[in-house]
Write a structure and sequence with these properties.
The structure holds 2 protein chains of 2 kinds. By secondary structure, chain A is an alpha+beta fold. Chain A has 9 helices and 18 strands. In chain A, strands 6-7-8-3-9-10 form a 6-stranded mixed sheet, with helices on both faces. A 5-stranded antiparallel sheet of chain A has the order 13-17-14-15-16, with no helix packed on it. In chain A, strands 2-1-4-5 form a 4-stranded antiparallel sheet, with helices on one face. The relative contact order of chain A is 0.12. By secondary structure, chain B is mainly alpha-helical. In chain B, 77% of the residues lie in helices and 0% in strands. Chain B starts with a helix and ends with a helix. The chains are: A alpha+beta, B mainly alpha. Chains A and B meet through strand 6, helix 2 and helix 4 of A and helix 7 and helix 8 of B.
Amino acid sequence: MTDSPTPAIRLTGLRKSFGAVAAVTGVDLEIGDGEFFSMLGPSGSGKTTVLRMIAGFELPTAGTVHLGGRDVTRLAPFERDVNTVFQDYALFPHMTVRENVEYGLKVRGVGRSARRARAAEALASVRLDGFGDRRPSAMSGGQRQRVALARALVNRPRVLLLDEPLGALDLKLREQMQVELKAIQREVGITFVFVTHDQDEALTMSDRVAVFESGRIAQVGTPAEVYERPASSFVAGFVGTSNVFTGEVARGLLGRDGTFSIRPEKIDLSPDSGVPGAVGLPGAVGLPGVVAEVVYAGPVTRYVIDLDAGSRAVVVAQNRHHGAPLAARGDHVRLSWHDEHVVEIPTSSKETADA
Amino acid sequence: MTLSAPARWALRATMALGLVFIYVPLLLVLVNSFNGDRTFAWPPHDWTTQWWAAAWANEGARQALLTSVEAGLGATAIALVLGTMVAFAVQRFRFFGRDTVSLLVILPIALPGIVTGIALDSAWRSVMGDLGIGKGLFSVVVGHATFCVVTVYNNVLARLRRTGTNLEEASADLGAGPWQTFRYVTFPMIRSALLAGGLLAFALSFDEIIVTTFTAGPGITTLPIWIFNNLFRPNQAPIVNVVAAVLIVLSVLPVWLAQRIAGPEAGASRT
């Protein structure tokens, strides 16, 4: 998958158990040089444990970790060319911001003046010039986040690991930092491995995403691939919301056997005129149902529909026209979609996604 | 919480009474050390520093003060090293019998001094003596260290619990080896806890009398023992008073400092 002959990171058969609990149950992955790679998954899916094994804080139960072609599986964190931005930032409270940023250079024996210059440069790159003499405790959450980033980047590591670094920020700041992180990554050109449980974050920032499910990777791909062509019903449900139809319902709705997923924004909603198949998009199938819930969410409105064929479907419609919603609770409606938007999901989840 | 006015006054009075009972006698000792009257007539008619001069000139008292300081420093040094090591072991590693070790380390401070004293006395008679290590200053230092370890252990353990291992992981991640991490991150993190624990340990050792009685070798007299020995000699009374005053100051000062160190630090050490 990666164009570079030696990937920045290669994980082979990686496993980790804590006592009887298996946190990671077999991960194979290659991450290319300069890639912005996200590990997405619910809490407890093993993504952070994989990150900690790459950083060297956890010793794998089995498998190997290669960084730039070198086997580092059994090396200590300080022997690896990676740096981490921690979830709680882990800034040293007894040091100033500048001392924090200089720390990695200092312990590696870089001279004082070179240290000063590079720290100033790193702080400038995260727009914190002039904050060097402050203590971390005198800074806001967003500023601390940027200090943590500068402290890691100043060492010019081969790989930067980010463990849910935006989790503690409020929504506005988080969106702003997403844009900044992406810009910084493009500028410095090093590999970013970004752990998050926020699918928006993963989709908007990444070159590729790995979706984690209970200790293994359910799918790897570009954000569009993962979103448009989910490899399992878990991926379909976790990355965005999705209508997943299976078994009887699928046969009734689509006339086919298997498991199918349709994104809520790909479904059209129209009042039921009583004529089957006469409404909706040309060349589309139409299904009758009753509106169970209408949720206004600003830019869009979400409709929950009880289908006559059984099962429920969620439809999202843009609020392009202000005023009345398309339908009210209890209304009879028809759902229609293009057949090409119906994604068949491989039912046996045994085969993990391409790597 | 709101209290009625009478209840408030009653509580204030109770507190005042309690503090008066604790501190007025101590204050009396300090005042009397400057009392010009040999029989401590009250209220004092004239003031003098002659008892302080006499105490300073008293070879026995000076020797005792020196012995106490030596014993206190020795016990504190042992407590700092062992207490810190045990705290790290208990907080950072899981091993068989961890809780038991924790209990065994804390226990000596709860044990009656007389029990510790007897036990150490017999240990010295039956084991250490045969090894050629007789009772002396060293045995006093070891005796004091048994309970001084607890103050350091508790302080360091609490600090380690509060700070976690995140900062040390960050340090290792940034390329620092184990010694660099200890020097630049771990030690600054626990420094004030060590200071507070050490000062408390010194204060504990400095006024200890029971364990000292059982472990002191011939010719080893600490300040509290010296006071005890001279308490019932009427013509020594003013000097004893001065020595007691010194003991009060030297015991209170470390505790006060330890509180000052641990106090503001407690709120601000985590970001």
